[in-house]
Amino acid sequence: MTPKHEKQEFVTVLVRDPRTQKEDSWHSYIDYEIFIHTNSMCFTRKTSCVRRRFREFVWLRQRLQSNAVLIQLPELPSKTPFFNMNNPHHVDHRRQGLQEFLEKILQDALLLSDSRLHLFLQTQLSPEDMEACVSGQTKYSVADAIHKFASLNRRFPIEDEEKKKGKNDAYSDSESSSSGLGPSDDSISCGCKASPASEES
């Protein structure tokens, strides 16, 4: 017997809260918060929040395209030499373009099967570390990386509580473990509000 009302899968993605980050004394860049809320079985975590910069989106698109050559991927907002990070219209136009890109990506089942996409959306790993993880060159798996980041990012207690109801939370307080997933302090996990400029090279 099938239930009268099948639970329909959804994936909500929001690209928001652009922030200027200092890379060094001379260079700055803008990163964006990516918020995911979903009931899809494709995702390890049902709620997540990370910060990414434009060039990481460029990397993601290149990697997805190389792994799905028969799919025409949506375009990113064009990178123009006239982009001004102090111009709110320019920044918001790029933010909208990045959100539309992710919305289209997340509608494709083949792209959803790519581990890089999940690491991009649900961890703060650098592109180099994401590549190493999916290539099996790390001590941790894709799921380990996502759970580790979630255990450090205490912004969504509801999901954690739901997991505890069903079973003991195997991922809580794992900050002290030497899993090789990066720094264990809160610098990368304060509700997506503190994104260190040293996040990537």
From TrEMBL:
Gene3D superfamilies: Phox-like domain. Residues 157-201 are annotated as: Disordered. Transmembrane segments: none annotated. It is a peripheral membrane protein. The keyword Disulfide bond does not apply. Residues 10-127 form the PX domain. Residues 157-170 have a biased composition (Basic and acidic residues). It is found in: Cytoplasm; Endomembrane system; Endosome. This is Sorting nexin 10.
